[in-house]
Amino acid sequence: KSVGVYAGAIAPDFSVKGLDGAEQRLQALRGKVVLVNFWATWCVPCRDEMPAVQAAYDAHKDEGFFVLGVNERESNDDISSYARELSLHVPLFADLDGKVGRQYRVFGLPTSVFIGRDGVIREVMIGQMSEGSLDANLKKMLY
Fold first, then answer.
1. What is the C-alpha to C-alpha distance for residues 112 and 127, in angstroms, rounded to an integer?
2. What SS3 class is residue 113?
3. What are the residue ranges spanned by the domains of the chain?
4. 122: exposed, middle or buried (C-beta count within 10 Å: 0-12, 13-18, 19+)?
5. b or e along 4-33 (b: 16 or more beta carbons within 10 Å of the residue's beta carbon)?
6. The predicted structure's pLDDT at residue 110
7. Is 15-142 CATH 1.10.10.10?
8. Taking a C-beta distance cutoff of 8 angstroms, is the pair 63, 142 a contact?
9. What local confidence, expressed as pLDDT, does residue 2 receive?
10. Phi first, then psi: what are they for 121, rounded to 5°?
11. Beta bridge partners of 6
12. What is the pTM for the complete model shown?
């Protein structure tokens, strides 16, 4: 399989820093179902879908589901304030220079990339996900 940002391609590896400064590599999450969710604090559809992402993470994290909530070009302080305001504890990471967003060809927010346990992209969704579409994707991938 080739590496790319489309369904059926191997997801390009990247690393991002968490709010605690710890680095997370996508490659290290092989064996888990991963949602890479690109978002920003100023993005209203991102804000509207975050509770569904948080609920899915809470419901499925013990079944091998991991979220990489990749914030585009904002400071850790802004991300932390947003997380507190929305009571989020889903894993959030900073893409300060936008490198990961460029690598994944993110042109609109939110953009969600669903990656299977084998590291292959199953679906790329541009725009706000409904709770139903999020759940349907996870059920296909987790079970």
1. 8
2. strand
3. 15-142
4. middle
5. ebeeeeebbebebebeeeeebebeebeebb
6. 98
7. no
8. yes
9. 86
10. -70, 130
11. none
12. 0.97
Q: Supply 133's token pair.
A: 């579409």
- What is the bridge-based pairing of β-strands 65-72 and 33-39? parallel
For 26, 28, 61, 103, 142, the CA distances from 100, given in Å and listed in that order, are: 11, 16, 23, 5, 25
**Closest alpha carbon to 105 in 12, 5, 36, 34:** 5
CA distances from 140 to 109, 113, 119, 123, 134 (A): 24, 14, 15, 11, 10
* Structure-token pair, residue 132: 């139903």
Residue carrying structure tokens 């509207």: 48
Cβ contact 127:45 at 8 Å: yes
Q: Which of 2, 84, 79 is nearest to 40 (CA)?
A: 79
The pLDDT score that the predictor gives to residue 66 is: 98
Q: In what order do the strands lie in the sheet with 15-18?
A: 23-25, 15-18, 92-95, 65-72, 33-39, 111-115, 121-126
User: What is the identity of the amino acid at 100?
Assistant: V
